[in-house]
């Protein structure tokens, strides 16, 4: 499994959360709402909702905000209709980028995403132009500071059904097949607190940027995309 910049994305999100928690909570609130509308309000029977709630809690979203998002999705206080769209393209140096959005205005969101690709040396492409460079996997992030014994975490991950385990100075990333995502969460969550968890695209190979200008452009593009109200997740194969 190729390495990627999961920790950099998490750090950016945490920094943004400290600066503007309301905006970050709005993004997770939208995630919860669309999960409720597609699968119902019970997390025990709606795996997408259970996952969305777990991700929200991992990012310190209060229970009251979570409950309010569920109620909004059930029709209490909002008639907002959100559409789940993924845009694909390339950043500077040929870095493949996928941008997942939840929006109530497809034209507005497409214009904003295209503008940021163009501004920072990239280009927005057509459906499928970048997704073939990714594969769908489950990912669980655990901080090393909280669980310093790498061997113990590794054994727990393997026994729970993990497909791959990557260790770094910051912590551990546990990778699993999509069909094992729920099982792994159930087995590990009683003993481990996740910094982040997701079921989505992970790059098959990575691209290294050697020109400082391209590095700066890529950093800015990711930062500005993640700052967009309609953008939920940014996936890329840049080896940062």
Description:
- The model has no long low-confidence stretch (mean pLDDT 89).
- The protein has helices at 6-19, 21-39, 47-58, 63-73, 106-119, 150-160, 181-188, 212-227; strands at residues 83-90, 96-103, 123-124, 134-143, 164-167, 171-176, 196-203, 231-236.
- The longest helix has 19 residues, at 21-39.
- It is 44% helix and 22% strand.
- The chain has 240 residues and is of the alpha+beta class.
List keywords for this structure.
240 residues, alpha+beta, 4-stranded antiparallel beta sheet, 8 helices, 8 strands, globular
In short:
The protein is an alpha+beta fold. The protein has helices spanning 6-19, 21-39, 47-58, 63-73, 106-119, 150-160, 181-188, 212-227; strands spanning 83-90, 96-103, 123-124, 134-143, 164-167, 171-176, 196-203, 231-236. The longest helix has 19 residues, at 21-39.
Largest sheet: 4 strands, antiparallel
Structural class: alpha+beta
Percent range for β-strand residues:
15-25%
Helix coverage percent of residues? 40-55%
* Rg estimate, integer Å: 18 Å
Low-confidence parts lasting 5 or more residues at pLDDT below 50?
A: none
Terminal Cα separation, in Å?
A: 16 Å
- SSE order, as H and E? HHHHEEHEEHEEHEHE
Oligomer category: single chain
Number of strands: 8
Strand arrangement in the largest pleated sheet: 3-1-2-8
Number of helices: 8
Q: What is the typical, i.e. mean, pLDDT? A: 89
